[in-house]
Design a protein that fits this description.
- The chain is mainly alpha-helical.
- 65% of the residues lie in helices and 6% in strands.
- It has a four-stranded mixed sheet, with helices on both faces.
- Helix 4 links the parallel strand 1 and strand 2.
- Helix 8 runs parallel beside helix 12, helix 12 runs antiparallel to helix 16 and helix 17 crosses helix 18.
- The longest helix is centred in the middle third of the chain and has 35 residues.
């Protein structure tokens, strides 16, 4: 045990004295926090819908004059009512053109954001210079055209449009009572957490594999195995990697979540779907995410011991990456059906419970015994994987040359027993 702690302290020192590691952690944390503090110092009301800057001051940001969007139109059908367009397009200035060429010229010269040429009661042409991905002008103008058509039709038929509209658009009041989980609201932060734990496993697992292979490639492993046991080496590297990964992720994620809670009012709650995560979900994410990381980290360490050169690592871990990627995509796809049979099974398998169980906790119905059984299975699997990984590590540390296949390594272990 003493040798394990020596290895652990050494590996932790490598992480926490690494300037790149510490600087990257600080930069990501500061950057995440700074972005979430922006509404306190910058007017982002067009994006957030909240016209409050500077915390609790409550002062509305005055709108500058001349900010109205300019539109041009040509009414060849005689149906357009500019006052209605002004209501449907807030803060807009509508100008009538003499002909279609004037509409086109105004848009090309940048004098108008867009132009509309109404050619019939239910037909129009739309002119825009550069159409953005968020352009909703045609959708809004289309609704305006429908309104013009209804008004004209009702006027011709002698009907009262307001009475008809009141009948069709009667307001319905609903009181929604979610007795368990709101999957729609919880979906996106579960999506983000699945991606985070996937990146944690792949990034730090690769680092562990590279660390093991580097010691073989420079023959340092020959000295290390004489002074400590392979078990201590592998467990020390994996636990240190887990501490380093959790530290970095915890600092960045913690800074981001706390900054959002402080500035939630300024954001108008618009990022709740990503950053307003319940404490029980974060707790489940911590336990199952860390467990999944340890499970795969031991395997990455074993895979690193099977090769002698760092350039061969990709070959050694390719099979493991296939499993991780398959679990990752299955988990994301099944987030829309967290009470389905597939994700129930995945939540008990150690290869996938690290992402699927906390998703079920956040979005579905999970009995307490299911959580306990799933975590116990994961814990036993971590221990078993650690022992198996240590045996492969011990067997492969002093074997050089061509990469050793995992099947060959398992056969050799069976023979040795």
């Amino acid at each position: 045990m003493n040798r394990f702690f020596i290895v652990l302290r050494y590996e932790l020192k490598e992480y926490f004295t690494n300037k790149v590691f510490m600087v990257l952690t600080a930069v990501l944390a500061v950057l995440g926090a700074a972005l979430l503090f922006l509404p306190r110092f910058v007017d982002m009301s067009d994006f957030t819908g909240v016209q409050i800057v500077g915390g609790d001051s409550g002062e509305e940001v005055p709108k500058e004059e001349g900010e109205q969007a300019v539109y041009v139109y040509l009414d060849q059908a005689g149906v357009v009512q500019p006052e209605i367009l002004g209501q449907m397009f807030p803060e807009s200035d509508w100008r009538e053109a003499a002909d279609e060429a004037e509409v086109r010229a105004a848009v090309e010269a940048g004098e108008a954001e867009a132009g509309f040429v109404v050619t019939g009661a239910a037909e129009y042409a739309y002119y825009v210079f550069n159409k953005s991905m968020t352009d909703r002008n045609t959708a809004v103008f289309g609704e305006a055209m429908k309104l013009f058509y209804r008004m004209d039709y009702c006027r011709t038929a002698g009907w009262n449009l307001e009475e008809i509209a009141a009948m069709y658009d009667v307001p319905i009041e609903v009181t929604e009572n979610v007795l368990n989980k709101d999957s729609g609201s919880n979906y996106w932060y579960c999506y983000v957490l699945v991606i985070i734990v996937f990146m944690l496993i792949v990034y730090y697992g690769q680092m562990i594999a590279v660390s093991v292979t580097n010691e073989k490639s420079n023959r340092a492993i020959e000295v290390l195995v004489t002074s400590t046991s392979p078990n201590s080496l592998l467990f020390g590297k994996v636990i240190a990697g887990a501490v380093g990964g959790v530290f970095q992720m915890g600092v960045v994620l913690g800074a981001t979540l706390i900054s959002y809670q402080v500035n939630r009012e300024q954001w108008g709650g618009m990022l709740d779907m990503f950053l307003h995560i319940p404490s029980e979900v974060l707790l489940a994410f911590a336990f199952f995410g860390l467990g999944g990381y340890l499970f795969y980290a031991f395997l990455y360490g074993a895979m690193g011991a099977l090769v002698s050169k760092t350039e061969d690592i990709s070959k050694s871990v390719s099979g493991l990456m296939v499993v991780i990627m398959a679990v990752y995509f299955f988990s994301l796809v099944q987030l829309t059906n967290v009470d389905g049979q597939v994700i129930r099974i995945l939540s008990f398998l150690p290869v996938s419970s690290y992402s699927t169980m906390f998703a079920r906790i956040a979005m579905g119905t999970v009995a307490p015994w299911e959580i306990i059984v799933s975590f116990l299975i994961l814990a036993v699997s971590i221990l078993g994987t650690g022992i198996l990984g240590a045996k492969i590590y011990r067997m492969g540390t002093l074997r050089y040359g061509n990469p050793i296949k995992i099947t060959s390594a398992l056969k050799d272990l069976k023979k040795s027993e």
